[in-house]
Amino acid sequence: MTGLPGFVGSPRVWIAIVVIGIATYSFRLSFIHLFGRIDEVPERIGRPLKYVPPAVLAALVFPDLVTIRPGVVATLADERLIAGVAAGAVAWRTENVFATITVGMVVLWLFRFVVFA
Amino acid sequence: MTGMNGGVLDEDLIAGMRDVTPLMLGIVPFALVAGIAAVDAGLTLAEAVGLSVIVFAGASQLAAIDLLGSNAPLAVVIGTAAVINLRMVMYSASIAPYFADYARRTRAALAYLLTDQAYALSVAEYQRNDDRSRWRYYLGAAASLWVVWQIGTVVGVVVGAGVPDAWGLTFAVPLVFLALLVPAMKDRPTTIAGIVGGTVAVVAAGLPLNLGLLVGAVSGIVVGLLTEAMGR
Are residues B153 and B207 in the same domain? Predict the structure, then answer.
């Protein structure tokens, strides 16, 4: 139990929030502000941006599902990886966020509290 | 171009709110997870809400929370979140022509609400229906998302504070990303970009300063571009 959090927080966190906020807003505003009349994304900007979502999302997901350990079995017999593969299959079949979370969490709990317990 | 009755709740605004409703099934759990992850990483309620209001971009919020919780350097936290949100430039460029006739102040306000969902819905609707008031339709969808996102974050903070750590509720974070990742891998180059980005991030997970995520993401983008170049 972590208990209800406090309120004010740390300067470190607030600096991160404000700087990320400014950067994100400037990305959102960029073309809406500057080039209101162009018809499409310039090729040189648009091409790399197309690969940002899959590359970034995978770089976020994979390390949370698998940690390289000495030995193949030690690496693969991980409830997070098993839950992730099950959830990935659901995401692929349904493209439904809620179903993906539900299946992933249930499989995680099944292996953590029953199979590997 | 304006609505039928000129009132606040006119037809175009309501159409935006109506069309965004099915997407809330994905947004609500995502917002709850953003709140749960924030409290789990030691953020306060004010920080969690501040993040949701000031940044208002789920994937980058979750990455920032994760890195803040593991005491990564500020530059890495900010750099990683910024890379994740770079895609907003693409949306901004794509939707800009539709907003070109509005006053600068209106465009500045509309830009704040720009999200994956508001962008995708609005551009699809503009192409289908030329009679829509563009800003009212967009506002109906985007502002609904904003309200649900903020409420979801607060509920997540309160709920997350009461659930034992052993349940591993923060595992819902990679599950949300997974649900977004699968449809993002829609052809050969994007699929390879994802596989390379994820694999490099796993191998580089031990890098100092939590740089693994950034290195993985950049590798994936570069290999995706190379794959595309080879396919032509």
Answer: no
Domain with B196 in it: 185-232
From the list B28, B73, B32, the residue with the least C-alpha distance to B160 is: B32
Q: Do B26 and B101 reside in the same domain of the chain?
A: yes
Q: Cβ of B231: how many Cβ atoms within 10 Å?
A: 9
Cα–Cα distance, B150 to B61 (Å, whole number): 13
- In chain A, what residues touch B48 (CB-CB under 8 Å)? 5
Interface with chain B: mutation pick from A17, A103, A114, highest number of B CBs within 10 Å? A17
The residue whose two tokens read 């079949």 is A93
pLDDT tens digits for B99-134?
A: 988 999 999 999 999 998 898 889 888 988 888 999
Same domain, B164 and B196: no
What's the ipTM? 0.83
Cβ separation of B46 and A9 shorter than 8 Å? yes
Chain B environment of A63 (Cβ under 8 Å): 198, 201-202, 205, 212-213, 216
The predicted-structure confidence for B14-56, as pLDDT tens digits, reads as follows 999 998 887 887 788 889 989 999 998 999 999 999 999 999 9
Kindly state whether residues B136 and B85 are assigned to the same domain: yes
